[in-house]
Amino acid sequence: MDKVxxxxxxxxxxxKGWEEKGYFKPEINPKGRPYCIILPPPNxxxxxxxxxxxxxxxxxxxxxxxxxxxxxxxxPGTDHAGIETQFVxxxxxxxxxxxxxxxxxxxxxxxxxxxxxxxxxxxxxxxxRLGFSLDWSREKYTLDPDIVKLVYKTxxxxxxxxxxxxxxxxxxxxxxxxxSFSDLEVTYEERRTPLLYMKYGPFVIATVRPETKFRDTALxxxxxxxxxxxxxxxxxxxxxxxxxxxxxxxxDVQVNPEFGTGIMKVTPAHDPHDxxxxxxYNLAVTPIIGFDGKMDFSWFLDRKxxxxxxxxxxxxxxxKYVKEARKLMIDDLKEDGLLLKTDENYVHRVGVCYKCKNxxxxxxxxxxxxxxxxxxxxxIEVVKNGKIKIYPKRFEDQYFQWLENLNDWNISRQIAxxxxxxxxxxxxxxxxxSEAMRQTVPGxxxxxxxxxxQNDSTEGWIVTDGQRPEKCPNCGSKKLEQDPDTFxxxxxxxxxxxxxxxxxxxxxxxxxxPTTVMETGYDxxxxxxxxxxxxxxxxxxxxxxxxxxxxGLVNDPYGKKMSKSKGNxxxxxxxxxxxxxxxxxxxxxxxxxxxxxxSLSYPKLEAARKFTNKLWNMGRFITLCxxxxxxGSKSSNTEMPNQAEPDRHDTRGLFKxxxxxxxxxxxxxxxxxxxxxxGHLDNYNFNYAxxxxxxxxxxxxxxxxxxxxxxxxxxxxxxxxxxxxxxxLKLLHPFMPxxxxxxxxxxxxxxxxxxxxxxxx
Length: 761
Description:
The chain is an alpha/beta fold. It is about 40% helix and about 15% strand. Helix 22 packs antiparallel against helix 23.
């Protein structure tokens, strides 16, 4: 064996050989028990980040079960990632001095498609570099035609059965990105915003949003608040910035009497709580902020005989962005003596876009929703009854809490990139709405004409499983306009386990569904895991996976979350180049309990590299211990003669030739090690397994046993020494696949360690 192990010379060669020989396919063990993991599909819009290196856990499991004789399938794929990808592409356009609004829908979609295709191949290369034994012959993409067809089929089924509806709701709308988001895509940040105490007729109210007061439809108090009991049901004249308005006081138990003065203004068009009050008390929903994020006073300016003072104010406010208009309004409140005091230190939680970090506007609009009531009940039940087990168990509470409080799911997005909603309107039967759709460019903020209040129904909409309807079933017209919206990415990826297996090879679904393990970051518990469970149960009648395993996040060396904006993102392949894939993989697992966050540690990487070199040196030393080998051999080919007897793959047979007490002791210790490591992997205790292997190989085997054996080397002791080393290589292989394979081949132990048998326990 060479004096120095060179990962750069070994890794590419070995991986290519594995792939060419078909070792990643479950057909390697055709009679084995099905064992399946679906790779959480990386976003196909750029290079992998360091968090993707945690897929190492999945590779450990797949290699472990492949060696146990299971028909192990690790199915790869990539996600088109809807808004994520369009956001990245728009940043690229901005650098070129362009905007998404410069292109029609078809052109924009084509441009993004080409951009994504240039990156998908790069993602494959990165996953290969990390040694991941994925079955590339079964790779899927969320925009594959057969995948899209099944997504449409699911939508149609849910629509036909009343689980999908068109509803008028307040949605989380990003005026910068020009799209709505579901509740789980909202990031909440604590921000300091002035709390204004305003004179409101005979009352004083506290608010951080004076800009919405122009569309208040009522005042609300708690019915138990003694300050306002005699005011409930009465109507008062309120002097505002644009004149006098009349406001009725309603009572509701949801009003917090401890906030501000205990009386609140109700603006159903711009606050989720107020929207629910509006539905309950039949209050008008009248927006003051448009989808472009600008104030809209056209409703006021269209009036006749307006006081010139108020007209001038409305004209100043009109068309201004919220922050700018708010400043003007505060100045006018002061001028009119309506601003009594300001709390400049008020801190509250503000919902922001998880992509651009701009404040989200609650805005009323029609969207497609999934009724989740029955879906979430079943998803909760399968975890409670053990059909799905969650590891670590502490994440169960988060799972239950999220589902129990889950509202109906907004699944439509105002973007071009993604799977378009297969719903049409007849231009003859619904001329205004169809015309609005025809003129709307996704994300341009021009959807006001589609935001008129509607009943929660799909009346007038023609929903199909993807194909364009030939004619309107009502009037027979062929002039139909498709909804410009696309599906929420999580609607398609929430079906990932069954739509992949249904579209790979005949028999895959029947054999591998439900999958064995879903392994992913705990940050995807809400967005992805819960939705896979709901949709999997609904479509297939079975759970999508038997076990859910969560890993933690990988932060930078200072414990901070990696982010491009912070400039602390580390490319995993840079570390692979420097330390080798085995070292990167081992460092990620060693010393970090399953589900816990960790900080990237260069000392751990260096220690893992030294361990890799230690294994190589152990192998080299063992070859030099062979009594019939020339210690000066420099051959790079197999240097170890094959030994037929006893079976090197079964430690039990070694007792037949073991004469020395230390040999017998080490055989027993190795057998115990096999049981320990097997148990740790079965229970997902990867860190315990890695730590135990490190300590055993380096300290018990190398430092003690090898030093002992070399003093008394003979044929039998050599066979025991090399055989016990083989066992360690097998146990280490799932963690460090390249160096173990290279040593295995140099020793001539067999075709490949990755298809060899797991050590007998």
